């Protein structure tokens, strides 16, 4: 039994390019983001990976990334489940603001704390702890049982919703997760043990030479 779980952050979005806080806002992918997603699909198929089901958020940048990955793998017809629980963290009052402008307004130290601390939310928004409070129950109740049943699962989501999962899978602490950045369009491949812990992890861009 494979017990395969692959996490992929969406490709670069229009607001990533503009350095805007995005959260639950819904910009599309840039041309580079499209290529990042397609490249992720090529990496996965070249390494022999296949999927039975994909999960993604309610936001188009993640949905389109899932579609592009699966298209490259000739898996466009598999089940794709969309869930708000996998949305990016809500940046509240920061949503739509340029990150440099936010630093000018509130100070670099405060903005860094909002972005990287585990439990300090931005005004009107979610902390990583808040994000984990919706992501992890969905993972445990909906995604994990399918992995443990032997289905090969892709999750195409967002930097912070995936950080919440990586924190648990990699057994990180609120302190160590603060330094983790998940790159756009780079698949994180996990194989799980029978007790749901991680048997092996592979970060594909570190292990693949594309020809």
Please explain how this structure is put together.
The protein is α/β, with parallel strands linked by helices and 211 residues long. It contains eight helices and six strands; from the N terminus they run βααβαβαααβαββα. A six-stranded mixed sheet has the order 3-2-4-1-5-6. Helix 2 (31-46) packs across helix 3 (60-72) and helix 6 (128-148) crosses helix 7. The mean pLDDT is 95.
* Straight-line N-to-C gap: 31 Å
Tally of separate helices: 8
Round the Cα radius of gyration to an integer and report it: 17 Å
In which order are the strands of the major sheet placed? 3-2-4-1-5-6
Going by helix content, strand content and strand pairing, the class is: alpha/beta
Low-confidence stretches: none
Number of DSSP-assigned strands: 6
Percentage of β-strand residues: 5-15%
Overall pLDDT metric: 95
**Main sheet?**
6 strands, mixed
As a percent range, the share of helical residues equals 40-55%
Per the principal axes of the C-alpha atoms, what is the gross shape?
globular
> What is the N-to-C order of secondary-structure elements (H for helix, E for strand)?
EHHEHEHHHEHEEH
Compact summary:
With 211 residues, this protein is of the alpha/beta class. The chain is 41% helix and 14% strand.
Key features of this structure:
8 helices; alpha/beta; 6-stranded mixed sheet; 211 residues; globular; 41% helix
Outline the secondary-structure elements.
Elements: E1 4-9, H1 14-17, H2 31-46, E2 53-56, H3 60-72, E3 79-82, H4 99-106, H5 108-116, H6 128-148, E4 153-157, H7 159-169, E5 188-192, E6 198-203, H8 204-207
Parallel strand pairs: 1-4, 2-3, 2-4
Antiparallel strand pairs: 1-5, 5-6
Helix pairs in contact: 2-3, 4-5, 6-7
